[in-house]
Amino acid sequence: MKPMTEQHLAVLRRHMVEIIDMHFDLASDEIGKDALDPAVRRALMDVPRHLFVPEQIAAAAYQDTPLPIGFDKTLSQPFIGALMIDLLDVQPESRVLEVGTGLGYQASVLAEMGARVFSVEIVEEFAEAASLRFTALGHDVQVRVGDGSRGWPDHAPFDRILVTAASPAPPAALVEQLAPGGQMVIPLGGKDVQQLSVVAKADDGILTTRALMAVRFTQLEASA
Predict the structure, then answer these.
(1) Which pLDDT score is estimated for 224?
(2) Does domain 6-215 have CATH number 3.10.290.10?
(3) Crossing angle of helices 6-26/78-88, nearest 10°?
(4) Rounded to 5 degrees, what are φ and ψ at 94?
(5) CA separation (Å) from 4 to 7, 10, 197, 210?
(6) Annotated active-site positions, please?
(7) Residue 223: what pLDDT?
(8) pLDDT at 59
(9) Interatomic CA distance for residues 215 and 134, integer angstroms
């Protein structure tokens, strides 16, 4: 069989986005909207997801399923990843902190949308691999190795924070680094089941949390 070309992969990417569109419609009662934000949709169409998984499973990159990327971590199901970015309500030039870089897919989508992205990853090998991908794609994403639950105070405050691992409650350091008027998207809960949640910080610092749907993520790790 011939290897897949970029044209073939573009067809698969378009199909992935159409499946995400279907999920948004089906889950509209839970998430409060029935369509993906056009800016998110454009970025999903443009970013080559197959470059953000191990090469041996690149052909599966556009399937509607989580994919293993090593170190007992996964790249989220396309719908869940797209939903989390959509819920952030990112604007061009938004300062976004991502906790959990992985191989860099979601940070690349955010950068494609014009956000200024700062990403923290606890696995050094992931941070290095993601940085190479950002450079190759021309995405200006700053990455550091460290405990994501502590955020990145040197670049705070952030307009938006995306946490790609679960925590029983919003980490205090991340709440502190979230700008007034900002939002954090995070899975909240224990080891087995969490609720994908939007944590909003009012101008007076008061937090409100909106839980949307049940999800399952690995737990947010803290460095020793």
Answers:
(1) 47
(2) no
(3) 70
(4) -60, 140
(5) 8, 10, 38, 42
(6) 76
(7) 52
(8) 84
(9) 28
Give the mean model confidence (pLDDT) for residues 6-33.
Answer: 94
pLDDT at residue 72 tops 90: no
Domain boundaries, the chain: 6-215
Express each pLDDT in 148-203 by its tens digit.
999 999 999 999 999 999 999 999 999 999 999 999 999 999 888 899 999 999 99
